[in-house]
Amino acid sequence: MQYLLMIYQAENAGPAPGTEEFGAMMQGYFQFNQDMEEQGVMLGGNPLEPVSTASTVRVRDNKSIITDGPFAETKEILGGYYLLDCKDLDEALECAAKIPTAEWGSIEVRPIMDLSKFQPG
Amino acid sequence: MNKPDSRLTNPRTTIENVVRDNYGKMLAALIYQFKDMDLAEDSLQDAIASALLSWEKPGLPENPIAWIIKTAKHKIIDRIRRDKIFSNKQMLIAALDNEMHGEGIDGFIDEQIPDERLRLIFTCCHPAIPEAARIALTLKTLCGLSTIQIANAFLSQETTIAQRLVRAKNKIKVAGISYEVPSADQWGERLSSVMSVAYLIFNEGYCSVSAEKSVQIDLCHEGIQIAKTLMQLLPTEPEIIGLLALMYFHATRFSARLNHQGEIISLAEQDRSLWSQEYIVAGDKLLKAAMMMGNMGAYQIQAAISAVHAHTSNYEETDWAQITLLYEKLYQYKPSPVVELNAAVALSFAQGPNAGLAALESIEKEKVMQNYQPLFAAKADILNRAKKYETARMYYKKAIKLTVNQADKNWLQDQLEAISSP
Questions:
Q1: What is the DSSP letter of A3?
Q2: Which tens digit of pLDDT belongs to each residue from B147-200?
Q3: Which end of chain A is more exposed for a tag (fewer CB within 10 A), N or C?
Q4: What is the pTM of this model?
């Protein structure tokens, strides 16, 4: 089953670039990527540019409305994601716990919708 | 357990007893095989209805449980064949047909149904399922209660519980919660969740006085049953044994804690001659067995605290010093302001009300305590004993404001009115 792991953290939480802790965190991500490849669950993942680069699109009454910024102003913002193919929710949750940002942020884990259930058997 | 002679006893009662005692086990086996709770439940209930009809005259067959399971499986296969939305339908049907044709009716006589209840209970109590739903799901599947019974026990609407169950089952399916016993590194947290559900169920029965008394005692028994089942399936977990001991010590007071109007009688005022010695003895045995395993935990300590009360025939003789020490120990395992509060109350009896008030000073500042009814009720009592009557009145009034239960409100009102003015 495919799961999207969404990495949320407060904008300036986590170690500052250039610090020793930052290096350790990057090493943690490098290790995580390796582990997920080895485990055979990695489908993809990316960090996102900061939330100041976000734009939001809404279409209302046929008009496209573009706004600057994320869809909602929240304390914790989406910083990156991983797409993993796990055998069940428990495996996805265990992987999520290994993401370095989990220690000061939140990882939302949601299943990708299984479209085959809408097809005739 | 003696197998009743079906020719002499009322067949319907016997069948119902057999079903009730094995419901959880049967359902767990079906859910594990077919990975679909609704399908398993519906088919099992149909099979039970068939059993009631088929066995009415001839009585129980030689292996009634295998009969019901086999019937349920047939019904499941039929449903899958008819239903167009099952994925991997062909594979599933092929697998089932193989199983069915592999053994004739004789093959089932000695069949032992594998006990998948542990998988079931860990699934029902998965942290990804909302707590209220964990309770409802456990009662529905493991304990075999109906939606109406659960609704009555929790003073909810049937539709509320039904919806809660639908969402929980959906989450299990869609989010991919598997019917497995957790791995070693998840074990502690997951087992904690299961024990918590069992204790919540017991407590709902024990503390809720507004619903019908008989219904509530049944809920206590369901809690006890769950703990017993856990103990049977995981005999080397001391906290489970401690939990059951704790429930038994509470159960000791079933006959003494309510008056004729159904109002609560406090520990200080209960007629201890009505306490059940049987439950005390049983609780003692379990607590001893747990502690001998040498792995102390929160439930064992809470049981030990309960045991101190259980062994005191006179409220005035309560060993509050011992209880205070036990609460302080409990704090090491369960560092919560609630435990601190209980320790402070015990201290107020062991070393006098002013000691208790001093201990409460820091506890009161905690965020979770701001509207925590037991804090205000407890402090009111301690202030009263410290002869600080004006402040005591204030605290009783706030406690009453925070109290939901009418019986408790009345009791607090009585305490407030009884305060002598200086």
A1: E
A2: 999 998 888 899 999 999 999 999 999 899 999 999 888 898 899 999 999 999
A3: C
A4: 0.84
The total domain count for chain B is: 4
Per-residue pLDDT reduced to its tens digit, A52-78:
888 888 888 888 888 888 888 888 999
Domain identity same for B7 and B113: yes
Q: Are strands A42-47 and A2-10 parallel, antiparallel or unpaired?
A: unpaired
Residues B74 and B157 in one domain: no
Q: Which amino acid appears at position B283 of this protein?
A: G
Structure tokens at B330: 């409990």
| pLDDT exceeds cutoff 60 at B8 | no
Taking the Cβ of residue B105 and every Cβ of chain A, the question of whether any pair is shorter than 8 Å is answered with: no
Min CA distance, B16 vs chain A (Å)? 37
Taking only the tens place, the pLDDT of each residue in B401-412 is 998 877 788 889
Cβ–Cβ below 8 Å for A1 and B176: yes
Out of A93, A111, A121, the one facing B174 most closely (by C-beta) is A111
Chains A, B: CB contacts within 8 A come to 40
Q: Which domain holds residue B90?
A: 1-124
> How far apart are alpha carbons A109 and A92 in whole angstroms?
7
Question: Cβ of A88 and B86 within 8 Å?
Answer: no
Tell which of B86, B101, B124 closes a domain.
Answer: B124
> Is B346 exposed, middle or buried, given 0-12, 13-18 or 19+ CB atoms closer than 10 A?
buried
Closest chain A CA to residue B82: A121
